[in-house]
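Next up, sample data.

:::
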Amino acid sequence: MARRTLREDIPPEVMTGPLRRDSVRKNVAAIHVSGKLTLLQRKLSNVLLLNAYDHLTTRTSHRIDARTLCVMAGYNSNDTATLKDALRSLAETVAEWDMLDAAGRQEWGVSALLSYASLKDGVCEYAYSPALAEKLHDPKVFALINMNIQRRFQSGHALALYENCYRFHRVGSTGWWPMALFRRLMGVADSAYYESFKHLNAKVIKPAVAEVNATSNIRVAPETRKVGRQIAEIRFLIEENPQLSMLDLDDGDGVRSGEVYGRLRALGVADRLARQWIAEHGEEAVARRIAEVEGRSGVRSPARYLSAAMRDGWTEAETPAPDPEAARRVAEAAVEAEARTRALAAREAAVEAERQGRAARLGRVLAAVDARSPVQRDAAWKLFLDRLEGDLEREDFRRYGWRSGINARAVFAFWEELEPEVFEGLGDAA
């Protein structure tokens, strides 16, 4: 089964430039101050940062199509009043950071999360303050916020917990947070009701943990520590969530921008195999193998020999004297490696073709939905929901609507029956 990514759910015509990435790198400082944001505001904040990231320090303002902004945030609506309210809240939200600068000195700062936002002719224009833009663009510590995962969250508390836990997933624990800090991260620091751990645990912690574990690529488990009779600190143990392995969660754009990846591709290594080697062995080890292969004379297929090197782990110093039998085995292994590379490339091409086809069809479906009146949309929704027999299928459709991955084939068949010409011109590939 092809892996689902955000881009399957977004019409291809709106995915341009940096929006083609699956993840946005968020500065730890920015994450720590966004606790008060609602779910929609938090999602919009991440999409705006993703759109602006490449030009944060070189442009004073940024632009994004309002429809694209809504779709990527999972807000498929023409209700511009709600979008305006969300942007207004981002401009009114204070961002605060407390971190070490390049010289190791403590630096504290405060800024509006957005210094400016406007909507005109279907385009959202916005800006960050210069100080905040610098922090967002050149952070010391990053957390990768996956756009596909973000869109699945239904609770602002759950998304806040995910953002603040995921940056610690490699060390397995967040470390101990004072309860005052944790309530601030969850956006409930101003509520007297949540000063009671009983209320905080029942209304915020347990529901957020359950949603993170069911929705994201990590699983978290809270632990508390008392001072006297009071819960004084909390931490979260973190592990990978194997149940979410079907999601395409790797930071592919980060790997692909590296020198080692570029050298592998220049040698003819397939994209996914190149990323796999870098992930398994690290860039330094892969670079050494590349140097060994490039240092050998008369190598007809560098990709073949590199595959053998990565599998067997040989180095130039370890290579024994020429042996005809060993040479034969290496040649056979190289042929097998090349065959695997070709097969992998073919599978990647098939997956990409399927992804593009599904994205094109989904774009037509969303356009057909938008073209209907609210009454017609509601009628189509109810009609399709009544056709679904399984509880899993019905629940997924209630949650994701026409973007439901589980029901994709049924969605396309339904709309083709409802509007026979809806997919006209897409061709067999779609």
In short: The two ends are 16 Å apart (CA to CA).
